[in-house]
Amino acid sequence: MSEPIYTAIGTRPIRHDGVDKVTGRANYGADLSLPGMLYGVVVRSPHAHARILAIDTSAALQMPGVKGVVTGKDVPLIDAKLGMGEGAMDLKDMGDNLLARDKALYHGHAVAAVAATTLAAAREAAALVRVDYDVLEPVLSVDRAMEAGAPILHATMVTQARPPIEQKGPTNIAGRMELKRGDLEQGFASADIIVEREFRTPTSHQGYIEPHACVVRVNEDGRISIWTSTQGPFLVRDATALMLGIDAANIKVTPSEIGGGFGGKIPVYLEPLAVVLARQTQRPVKMVMTRDEVFRASGPTSATRIRMKMGATKDGTIVAASASLYYEAGAYRGSPSGAGAMCVFAPYTIPNFFIEAYDVVVNKPKVAAYRAPGSPMAALATESVLDEIARALGIDQVEIRLKNAVKEGDHAPYGPPYGRIGFREVLEKVRDSEHWKSAVADGNGRGLACGFWFNAGMSSSATVTLGADGSAAVVTGNPDIGGTRAAQALMVAEELGIPVERVRPSVADTDTAGFTEITAGSRTCYATGMAVVEASRDVREQLRARAAKIWGVPVDETRWERDRVAPVNPTAERVALTVPEIAAKLSKTGGPVIGRASVNPPTAGPAFAAHICDVTVDRDTGVSRVVRYTAVQDVGKAIHPAYVEGQMQGGASQGIGWALNEEYVYNAKGVMENAGFLDYRMPVASDLPMIDTILVEVPTPGHPYGVRGVGEVPIVPPLGAVANAMSNATGIRFTELPLSPPRVLAKLMGDAS
Amino acid sequence: MPTVHFSNSLVHHTGGLTQLTLDAPRVAELLAALIARFPGLEYELDTLAVAIDGEVRPDAAYEPLRPTSEVYFVPKIAGGQGKLEVRR
């Protein structure tokens, strides 16, 4: 089948929201102010684990300017399960995380909130809220959490286990799951080489630039307006309604521009508190987290411990593998351990495997999604062990991966067969790349690692409105994190044959846009894009009817031709009409034209990526530097290639930071000691080389253009790619992240001695 | 008839059965038949997504099945694909 020819898809126009962003005009979460607005400040626990004995708000309430105070007793106790992916999430947990009722479960856990006429007064009043605590021993690692006799965070917690396990009273193990295939013992018995290692990754944060922020207004009639920086305005509406026992029909959520999320702006932290304070005070309330609060109280991702064993025959065929994954959930159940289990061996055909994954609660903030949640840490283990096996067997790193790579029809470790996937094509591009074929500079090391992510589908809606001038407006409910407005405009331009500059994309509030799930799971360009394409085709069908009306012929005597409606039987008078020509006659042919569509497609085809990393290591200081980096990825079809490349470069950069420097540093009391960007070291532009990208386009069947999600998988390989490069450079196998100078130096010194 | 495959996490509820063919026009009827036969599956199936011929759907109840369909139950993915639905 020949490649489809596109005119707009695959081009690189300037993003429609670009000028507002580079000139500072774009409105983010904290930019809105309303007349009479109060400022809300959260009172946070100074202890990582403590029973709350009493809260005295009287001194705070007496302060001039203070208008309201809220504590856990002001939030209704609602016990229901929310289906949040792999594990149903307890609404009581969400309420407790919003405001601690009986126990503070991490340093920074919200225990009260104050609203005052100025931010300074609110902060001062927050300091006057007196909380009596019974301080308990904090549980700060999965090792401690799972020890017999460890303090229990939740007295009623039982392990949600698949398959079921014997339960012996309350536990910190919130969940356990298993996947297996074949005969592990026999598989290992047939191996010529077996490598077994244990890996550790630290708590790390998404590190979005914009802190959480919202403004809430409650009208006299009870209608609530929420302006907020979120990945999911409909989720904010529904979660706030559920947590507070309010009818969601009374809540309108308007998403602001969003300064990054990466999964971390899916949960709600401030909005319900601001609603309670606004209802209490009958004034608008604004709440903005400080960077310190973002680190201490919004979701980082799990610290992990992963034990991995892999066996292969001399020719590099993997014959058996086992993995035990222990993921910190933070204070409440719900780590991405299950996703880690499903991803850990997903790129490879392994006839015999056993995977077990544990979801473990600890006294740290409740983890949130972070770009391909759970997969990067799992890939670190798999790719490191595979690197070691290939080196031991003297097999090229690409060849061993190609030998074991999954292809269409192979079964994923979690069961179903893969459809059309592009992992082998990705590896072939790596093999043929100039980077892979180039020599490694003396003293440097090169690493290769691969990664897998599922990509989501889920519900999306879109409307496309045609103007009388032939321009178009497209409206969806997905906050634009990765350039999705530009991509949607390109889709409309492609379908209607109009210039992309004449398409105006926008993100609407929950009363205006049709229901749309969160901007997450790499789903927006795929699922919402599908709705945009269908809405555009709805416009095309309506334009055929209008042209038929103009010509006085039945609709089936018209056909769509790229940018116009043509008559099936042309005459001297009856010639094709372009979109602007038909648009100019809208009022005469029946009024405005609005196309609409809603979809709930299956999950997009999974994404595979492979990254090549060259590092140089200063053996005297342990300082390392990435000197060259190439990201190769099956992107399905790149709608706006520059933003696809941007996603790949962003994911790689975040992953490199995670590998080299980023970590929460806790003291023995469970207090994070580096809650700021000065000490929580994320890579900046000057730390990194240009991240080169190679786009592989294996279209996803079922999508009009073959779009595959692209936003998450690029963070999966970097941990392994960097670690393998460092091992290659130094001859030392690194199994614990981050590979910060002190850790690397200690290993180098230890190795020398 | 469609073939249903049970992961090792589910075979506990199926008496060790790893696959089964069942006459069902849609996923809803398939689930009802499975739960009638293996009541222990009810909670499990309520929390799992359904893969029909390799396509994973979190909301599959009314999806049609073909006589050759291969059906798997897979965990819904948390976090980045979070979905808000109330189960009381």
Shape call of chain B: globular
How many distinct folded domains of chain A?
A: 3
Number of strands of chain A: 29
Low-confidence runs of chain B (pLDDT<50, min 5 residues)? Answer: 79-88
Number of strands of chain B: 6
Class of chain B in CATH?
Alpha Beta
- Which range best describes the helical content of chain B: under 10%, 10-25%, 25-40%, 40-55%, 55-70% or over 70%? 10-25%
User: Between the first and last Cα atoms of chain A, what is the distance in angstroms?
Assistant: 62 Å
Low-confidence stretches of chain A: 84-88
Spatial extent as radius of gyration of chain A = 27 Å
Mean pLDDT of chain A: 96
Mean pLDDT of chain B: 86
Enumerate how many helices of chain B there are, as a single number.
Answer: 2
Assign the CATH architecture of the largest domain in chain A. 2-Layer Sandwich
Largest interface: A-B, 57 and 35 residues
Structure write-up:
The complex is a heterodimer of chains A (753) and B (88). The longest helix of chain A has 28 residues. In chain A, helix 7 crosses helix 8. Chain A folds into three domains: 149 residues, Aldehyde Oxidoreductase, domain 4; 188 residues, Aldehyde oxidase/xanthine dehydrogenase, a/b hammerhead (Aldehyde Oxidoreductase, domain 3, Alpha-Beta Complex), CATH 3.90.1170.50; 302 residues, Aldehyde oxidase/xanthine dehydrogenase, molybdopterin binding domain (Aldehyde Oxidoreductase, domain 4, 2-Layer Sandwich). Chain A contains 21 helices and 29 strands. About 1% of the residues of chain A have low confidence. Chain A is α+β, with helices and mostly antiparallel strands and 753 residues long. Helix content of chain A is 28%, strand content 25%. In chain A, the strands form seven sheets. Chain A has a seven-stranded mixed beta sheet with strand order 3-7-1-15-12-13-14, sandwiched between helices. Chain B has 88 residues and is of the alpha+beta class. Chain B has a single domain, classed as Ubiquitin-like (UB roll) (Roll), CATH 3.10.20. Chain B is built from two helices and six strands. A five-stranded mixed beta sheet of chain B has the order 2-1-5-3-4. The longest helix of chain B is centred in the middle third of the chain and has 11 residues. The radius of gyration of chain B is 13 Å and the shape is globular. The C terminus of chain B is likely disordered. Chains A and B meet through strand 4, strand 10, helix 7 and helix 10 of A and strand 4, strand 5 and strand 6 of B.
